[in-house]
Write a structure and sequence with these properties.
mainly alpha; about 200 residues
Length: about 200
């Protein structure tokens, strides 16, 4: 896991700074397919340096796809739905982790064997091939993510004005005054209703 994590840390920051979306996703999908095919050739007798190279390549896939997915999320989600989209992205990431754990436990049910590794490789090859096709054929993926503008309000969003609560008091024990005042239209701001009303 250490080579994979190290590669992810090295690649993520430089790629994220370029605000690219489409290219990292395509390269990540292609590397995932190549690494999955390489797993099909590995076995018990595989040397440690080859295993390290495969783990580094997996780290490259993880970092490229992570940056690409987040860029696509921010580029394609409406401003008011970014939180929901980010939550769905994390949900499906966790779902993928659960499914991968299930695949590992099913493949190695009788112990860790070459046959079990090759079953995992076959599933990864199929999934990676679909990922390559979907990513390459998706023309809605932007090339770059628009830069984030700090301090600017999105168009159509009005600022909210909040007043200090110390000058306005609301008697929670007398909700009838609030209901009557807001229903009659004499008070449009519920905080303007005081206990004296």
């Amino acid at each position: 896991m250490l080579p994979m994590t190290g590669m992810s840390a090295l690649v993520t920051v430089p790629v994220a700074r370029r605000n690219v979306v489409r290219v990292p996703l395509i390269i990540g999908a292609l590397v995932a397919l190549a690494v999955s095919m390489t797993l099909r050739l590995l076995g018990v007798g595989t040397s440690l340096p080859i295993i390290v190279v495969v783990m580094v390549a997996f780290g490259l896939t993880v970092s490229l796809c992570s940056v690409g997915h987040q860029g696509a999320l921010y580029a394609q989600s409406p401003v008011h739905d970014v939180g929901t989209a980010a939550g769905l992205l994390r949900t499906f990431s966790y779902l993928g982790a659960i499914l991968s754990s299930s695949l590992i436990s099913l493949s190695y049910a009788d112990g860790v064997t070459d046959a079990g590794l090759h079953v995992i490789a076959d599933v990864l090859i199929a999934g990676s091939a679909v990922l390559v096709l979907v990513t390459v054929l998706d023309r809605s993926l932007p090339t770059h993510r628009p830069p984030v503008t700090v301090g600017r309000r999105p168009s159509g969003v009005q600022p909210t004005v909040s007043r200090p609560l110390s000058s306005q008091t609301l008697d929670i024990a007398a909700p009838d005054a609030l209901t009557a005042a807001t229903a009659s239209g004499s008070v449009s701001d519920p905080f303007a209703v005081t206990a004296a009303t």
